[in-house]
Design brief:
The complex is a heterodimer. By secondary structure, chain A is an alpha+beta fold. Chain A has seven helices and ten strands. In chain A, strands 1, 2, 3, 4, 5, 6, 7, 8, 9 and 10 form a ten-stranded antiparallel sheet that branches. In chain A, helix 2 packs across helix 7 and helix 3 runs antiparallel to helix 4. The longest helix of chain A has 23 residues. The radius of gyration of chain A is 24 Å and the shape is globular. Chain B is mainly alpha-helical. The chains are: A alpha+beta, B mainly alpha. At the A-B interface, helix 1, helix 2 and helix 7 of A face helix 1, helix 2 and helix 4 of B. The structure holds protoporphyrin IX containing FE (HEM) (2 copies). One protoporphyrin IX containing FE binds next to helix 1, helix 2, helix 3 and helix 4 of chain B.
């Protein structure tokens, strides 16, 4: 290479500064949200924390306890999915029963939504599911869901919910109607054991020929309501469930609903007609319940996009949004547990539960 | 045998291939952890699969580095600066190992399978643990920023050699016209 006179030295420095500075600026811009849509995973989890994070806890469904048991499959789903869970066998699971909301000491009976999350299988056959009591979402996109939470949150100034804001939100989102109809007709049961827990989002079952079948599932109770609960007890539902499992296992039928070509599996706000084919895949049998501090469900991030071979995610925007938001909440609580090893996974249950 | 003036062809291929791969990984990582969009799932899968490839690549690269003779820095460079240059190269290697390893370990600690292009699933070699996940997740983010800083300084130094000093150091990695 020929040597040139250094007359162009300032230009050469400018090239270096421009190249390195430009690259650095691009990295910062991407890290700062360049190219992201209006609501990010961090925005979502910030909103769920509401400026008042409960350190070490899930930013949603903060209050809950661990369960363990087995999924006893009857084999009926085998023609539709190669997932080993669906062969006629029994697969142990670890799960978590929780109530919606970010407050780990909230009274059980005030929660509008109750949940059951399960984790079964290992390696490429690991399957995680987080199910809620409503059969549908009120809205179909993460952006609209963000607005919904904003609209339903208490006004920071008055501490009260703002009915005008709520009705304005629902008026702007007619797709919420199915959810509101369900809400109007729903009576919370007096036990976690007698609720229905829905996948809400749809997924694909995939068989050995590669055929895809869109499904939703629900854990259907096999018992009816227990006695009336002590409304003054903040842990009324937990206590009832611990006592119940102590006496005998609690079973749910894991029921799959098959979509038709006319159903839109990417829209979680719409119910599929009741004439759709239903199949019971087997029973979820809960043998044990324990506080989070004694179980091993707290370290699990029940990300519903962890699916075994033989199942796949639909393009439902709500379903796809869940992974990154769950990961952000998981990251925050894991960091808090790493930095402060004395953090309790959950408020210690009174010893009476372990009788 | 006298010392060569350029890196071996295999070393140069690994250098530019990994430069491209690591930039893609960094941008993918930074974007995906924020995104609630449907492509998140796809990008996350690619990030993990290519991350495992990056781990294999850096092992191969280290072997090549240790088994070939590298060009010496020109005598015009002061000894202290040479030492800094070498230290920065070993820091880059450390970061190139720490990135994929922390990614792999954090997935282990989360109990999540690491599938490589749906072909095979890596074994879990760390216990499932919340504080352990917290540690490796933060290491993954902190080392990413350290890697970005190192790479920017590295690029600035390389361009300084190539454009200002013109001492052949940049050409030792770009290759020379014969
Ligand atoms: C865009 C929509 C949604 C967002 C942003 C969201 C966000 C979250 C977050 C941040 C967590 C805490 C995760 C952790 O730290 O481990 C969580 C937990 C949970 N979510 Fe969602 N969620 C969404 C939709 C849904 C839907 C549709 C369902 C039900 C079908 C659901 C059911 C649950 C359950 C059951 C848990 C608790 C799991 C456990 O016990 O650990 N979520 N959600
Ligand atoms: C050279 C290799 C790699 C580079 C440069 C890299 C880079 C990154 C970066 C920059 C982030 C975003 C961090 C943040 O903003 O907090 C990230 C996130 C992530 N990386 Fe990597 N990574 C690499 C390898 C891997 C590997 C091998 C795995 C797993 C097998 C992995 C799994 C992940 C996961 C799961 C996340 C998201 C964590 C979350 O959602 O909270 N990475 N990566």
């Amino acid at each position: 290479m020929s040597k040139k006179t250094p007359s162009a030295l300032p230009l050469r420095y400018a090239i270096i500064i421009g190249a390195v500075g430009g690259l650095g600026a691009l990295v910062f811009a991407v890290a700062g949200g360049l190219g992201q849509s209006s609501v990010t995973a961090q925005d979502f989890v910030n909103l769920q924390e509401g400026g008042n994070p409960h350190l070490g806890f899930r930013r949603a469904h903060a209050k809950g306890f661990c369960v363990a048991g087995e999924f006893v499959s009857n084999g009926s789903l085998q023609p539709y999915s190669i997932a080993p869970q669906f062969t006629a066998t029994s697969t142990p699971f670890v799960g978590r029963i929780s109530i919606a909301g970010g407050n780990p000491t909230a009274p059980d009976l005030n929660a509008p939504v109750r949940s059951l999350a399960l984790s079964f299988g290992e390696g490429s056959s690991r399957w995680l599911t987080a199910m809620n009591t409503p059969p549908v979402m009120a809205v179909g996109t993460p952006e609209a869901f963000y607005q919904q939470i904003q609209a339903l949150s208490p006004d920071p100034e008055t501490g009260e919910r703002n009915p005008e804001r709520i009705s304005a939100f629902f008026a702007a989102h007619p797709e919420t109607q199915t959810f509101r109809n369900w809400q109007a007709g729903y009576t919370p049961s007096s036990s976690f054991a007698s609720e229905i827990y829905h996948s809400i989002n749809a997924f694909y079952l995939i068989n050995e020929n590669g055929d895809r079948q869109a499904v939703r599932w629900a854990a259907m109770p096999t018992v009816s309501n227990g006695e009336t609960l002590d409304a003054a007890n903040a842990n009324a539902l937990q206590d009832e469930f611990f006592a119940r499992v102590e006496a005998q296992p609690v079973a749910f039928d894991l029921t799959f609903t098959f979509a038709n070509d006319s159903d839109d599996e990417t829209n979680p706000t719409v119910l599929w007609p009741s004439t759709r084919r239903n199949m019971i895949a087997g029973q979820i049998v809960v043998h044990q319940a324990m506080p989070e501090s004694e179980g091993n469900c707290n370290e699990i991030n029940f990300d519903p996009l962890v699916l075994p071979k033989g199942m796949a995610a639909t393009a439902d925007p709500i379903l796809r949004a869940r992974s990154a938001a769950y990961a952000e909440s998981y990251r925050r609580r894991a960091r808090e547990h790493f930095l402060n090893s004395s953090l309790q996974p959950s408020p210690q249950k009174e010893s009476e539960n372990n009788q | 045998m006298s010392q060569p003036t350029t890196y071996s062809l295999s070393a140069r291929i690994m250098h530019w291939g990994m430069a491209f791969l690591l930039f893609s990984m960094l941008f993918a990582g930074l974007a995906m952890v924020q995104s609630l969009q449907p492509w998140h799932l796809t990008l996350l899968g690619l990030h993990k699969s290519f991350g495992v490839i990056a781990l294999i690549a850096v092992i191969v690269r280290l072997v090549i580095r240790l088994r070939t003779t590298t060009p010496a820095l020109p005598d015009s460079i002061p000894a202290l600066q040479k030492r800094i240059a070498h230290a920065s190269h070993w820091l880059l290697y450390a970061a190139m190992f720490a990135m994929p390893l922390s990614g792999y370990f954090m997935q282990n600690a989360a109990g999540r399978p690491v599938a490589v292009f749906d072909l095979f699933t890596l074994p879990a070699i760390m216990p499932v643990s919340l504080p352990l996940y917290g540690f490796f997740r933060e290491v993954h983010a902190l080392v990413a920023w350290a890697l970005i800083a190192l790479v920017l300084v590295h690029i600035a130094a390389a361009l300084h050699h190539g454009l200002v000093k013109r001492d052949g150091v940049l050409q030792s990695m770009t290759g020379r016209k014969k």
